Structures are given as C-alpha cells and as structure tokens.
Amino acid sequence: MSVNNGSGQGKWAVTVLRCAIGWHFLYEGLSKIVSGHWTAKGYLEGAVGPLAGFYHLMASSAPVMTAVDALNMYGLTFIGLALFAGVAIRAASASGILLLVLYYFAYPPFGDASYAATEGSIFLVNKNVIEALGLALVLFAGNKGYGLYGLSGSSKKKTVDAAGEAPTSTRREALKHVATLPVLGIMGYEASTQLRKGGVDAFSGATRKIVVPTIKDLAGTLPKGKLGKFEISRLVMGGNLIGGWAHSRDLIYVPSLSLAYNTEQKIFETLMLAEKAGINAINIGWPSNPVLAKYKKVTGSKITVISQVAPSMDKNDYFYEINAAMDAGADILQIQGNWTDTLSRDNKFEVIVKMLEKIRSQGYVAGLGAHSVEGLIRCEEQGIIPDYYMKTLHHDRYWSAHPVENRTSYEVMGGNSDDHNKFHDNMFCAFPEKDVAFVERTKVPVMGFKILAAGAIQPEDGFNWALQHGADFICVGMFDFQVVNNVNTAINVLANLKDRKREWHG
Fold first, then answer.
1. Spans of all domains in the chain
2. Cα torsion 41, 46, 49, 54: sign
3. Does domain 224-495 have CATH number 3.50.50.60?
4. Confidence class of residue 211 from pLDDT cuts 50, 70 and 90?
5. How do beta strands 230-233 and 224-227 pair?
6. Nearest to residue 369, comparing CAs of 449, 293, 305?
7. Could you count the other beta carbons within 10 Å of the beta carbon of residue 377?
8. Is 368 within 8 Å of 376 (Cβ atoms)?
9. Exposure b/e, 493-504, CB count within 10 A at least 16 = b
10. Direct distance between the N- and C-terminal alpha carbons of the chain, in angstroms, rounded to an integer
11. Which of 486, 477, 483 is CA-nearest to residue 258?
12. Residue 197 has what pLDDT?
C-alpha cells in the first residue's frame, strides 16, 4: 500500500498519521494556553548543544520572550488544529517541522552530557525527529488523506485544489472528508473534562522533554584534587539516595520516597546538573553500577565512578563484584565500609588483602571504606594500607546523637536498637575524636562521608568540620534541588578554611 496513491487505504493511513501528530500539537498548545502562566523562558535558559547561545539570547529579552511564548502556544494550537481538520495541510506541516527542528536543537541528543536520555530520546533520534519525519511525509506525499480541504470542490469540477488533491463531489467522499471532525470533538471533550478535573496535564510538554535546573547562581569553580591518576572535585556526589539507602532513622517512608523521586530520568538530570556545577565524581553502592553505566553510555559523560564492592562470602568468590564493577565501567573501586567493619572485627584480614590486591592488579585505584575507625586501625596494624580511605567523618553535636556512654565500637554493624538512647541508624562516628586522630596522621588521601550524619547536620557546619579535621574530599548524597547550594557551600568553605592541621593529600 503506497501513501502516494489515491486508494482509500492509502488516504486513511495518511489521515491517521496526520491526525495523530495534529492532536499532539493541539493538546500541547491548548494546555499551555489553559495554564495561564506558561513560559518557555526556563526551557530556553537550560538549552544546551551547539546552538545554546541562540536560545539563551532569546531568553534574556523580555519582548522576545513575549513573542516566543505566544508563537509556541498559538502556533502549536493552530498547527494541530489544521493538521487534524485537514486544512492548509502543507503550511501546517512545514510550520510543524520548523518548530520540531527548533525543539530538537535546544536539547540535541548528541555531543553533550547535558541532554537527557529519557524514554523516546536516544542517541541522535528522539520524538521530535520521528514527528518531523511524519510531517515531511505528509508535506511531500501527493496523498494528503481526508480533510476539510476536500470539500472545496463541492461542484462536480475536477479541479486540483491548493493541497494538491482533486476534490470529489460524491456524498460518500464528502462524509469521509469531514470524518475527522466528530473524532476531534470526542477527543477534545474528553481532554477538556480531564483538564477541568485535574488541571493541566503534568506530562504535557512537547517543547521540553527534560528539566535541567539553572546554575546561574553558581558562586565559582569547585576545587579539585588527585585520587590516583584521577583529578576529581573536592565535593563528590554520594550514591545512597540513588540506591535508596536514606539512613532516615525512624522515618521509615523516606527510603521509598527517595527511590520514587529518583527515577532514571531524575538521576540523569541530577548528574547532568552536578557535572555542570563542577562535581565530576560519584561514589555509588555496587547495585547502582548499571544506571551509571547507562548514563555514561548515552550521554558521553566522563564522570568518574567510584564503585563500592563487597566479597561474596557464601561462595568464597571475593572478586565477583570487583569484576562486575569493572565490566560496568567503574573507574575506582573501594571495599564497602560495612564489609571493612565486619571483616576487621572478625579478624578476616586476608579477605581485605586479597580484594585490594585484585583491584590493584587490574590497574585500578583501591580504596578502603569504614564506619568504625577501629577497623581501619586494625588494618593498619596488619600492614594493610589502601590507596585512599573512605571514612565517615562527622561531629556528634546534633539532637539525635545517642549519649557517648552508650556508644560501642562497631555499633553500626549491630543493628538498630529500640532504645532511644542507643544506636538507631543515627550515628556513624561513635567516637569523633578517634576518627580525627586517625585521619590527621594518615599519609594517604581521605574521603569523608556521612559528614552530615545523614541530614542531621547543616551543610556549612558539616563541610567545614570534615575538611578542617583532615578530609581531602567530602562525599555528600544530594537531590537535584540541593546540588547548586551544596557546591556553593563547598566553594565558600574551602576558600575560608581555617585551622586545618593536616596537609592536603591528593
């Protein structure tokens, strides 16, 4: 069946294609008009790619934005209406293609880590491309399908109309040409009913597929340091919120809420924003490797991925997670803190040694994480020195910290107590003074984590305390709306840091 012939099948195929794209345009336009406060300003300000300057320039002018908003809202509406009803088909198709090309190059799916690889958007091809190709078919095909244009020849003359069709005067053909109108009426009625019930559809957004928060308030450049061969930002993105490990004490709903918020799209948006803001490394739990691998593959991102790894003790396969993390594209490997705690507590130092040797033998930087400083001290006594330490590093001056007299070594591994005065996912440095003493005398880089005690300490306070007491890098889990503020806080703290005794390592 060819869409270029005048057969009924070909005409219906083109009609359905034309109406499908037309309805998308029409709904997007009307939903923006109905919202009463829609603007493309944020969309243009966040534009990336080779033509980003053009879009940013438009966003900077109020008069231009007034025109751009009107053209978007009413352009989408009239193009959609024309395509669905079948009038001015060539003009509507050409105008639609132009709009889609502009949308495509605002967030081009190529060459920049700042576009979102969301559903319907992969390398080079996204929904805008597919709809533009559909409109090109309608524009250049001799067959325009059924529509109101076909009624222009109500007499029996066989003249060719402006759309390139020879109108027919038969009653049956006339009914076919108006067939889209009742369909439009039904769809419009149902859509308006939904709008009255729930307001503008939150998923509407033909002109924008992602939301990239602005970084116009960024205070400066985030300093970097060396971790092996890698130059990474002093502020490292934490991966717990991505993986759902919220450490929210008795707020049992928070881990699920965190996972629900951090969809794959939101993770990508957060990472893109973090990279724009100067954060170029993330420390993740081993299960998060696939999503980071996908992010780097589809965006071309060069973010340094630090993967935590653990031994599979039940199978004596100490290297399974190490090999899998390497295969996933992780850049730096680190023995996960809970496992350093457990293995050192149980005197299984040979497992730690084998894992560090395996990581180093493959040319990777090998880190050693821990919550309990006793584990790191015991490893040091055994001559086990990693390429860097990942150590919880926070003070205990916050409300939910349990009394010092009730704290014990390795209590993080002992489970949560029902006693409010004992450990309950609320403290990761039971004896901060011991942590500081260890960090200040070690000669390898130290990355401090849990520096905010999982949200119990204000960022400025936590950042300053960890860096002042010897951390070379700080790892902080953050949502997208916290990224810019955290980067600004880190820049300010680093610029005004006082009384740091330990020299910088890395």
1. 8-198, 224-495
2. positive
3. no
4. very low
5. antiparallel
6. 449
7. 15
8. yes
9. bbeeeeeeebee
10. 67
11. 477
12. 64
Tokens 């020299």 — which residue? 503
3-state secondary structure 331-359: CEEEECHHHHHHHHHCCCHHHHHHHHHHH
- CA 457 centroid distance within chain: 26
Instruction: Give residue 72's identity as a one-letter amino acid code.
Output: N
Q: What is the DSSP letter of 153?
A: G
Distance CA 438, CA 373 (A): 8
124-163 residue pLDDT tens: 888 889 999 999 999 998 778 888 877 765 444 444 444 4
Name the token pair of 39.
């603007």
What is d(CA 389, CA 352) in angstroms, rounded to the nearest whole number? 13
Q: Which residue in 329, 356, 331 sits closest to 344, CA to CA?
A: 356
Query: Which position has the token pair 């003249």?
Result: 159
CA angle at residue 434 from 374 to 438, to 5 degrees? Answer: 80
Query: How is residue 471 written in tokens?
Result: 């951390």
Reported residue count of the chain is 506
In b/e form, how buried is each residue of 457-475, taking b as 16+ CB within 10 angstroms? Answer: bebebbbbbbbbbbbbbbb
The total of other beta-carbon atoms located within 10 Å of residue 199's CB is: 11
Q: How far apart are CA 105 and CA 354, in angstroms?
A: 50
Give the DSSP H or E segment for 161: none
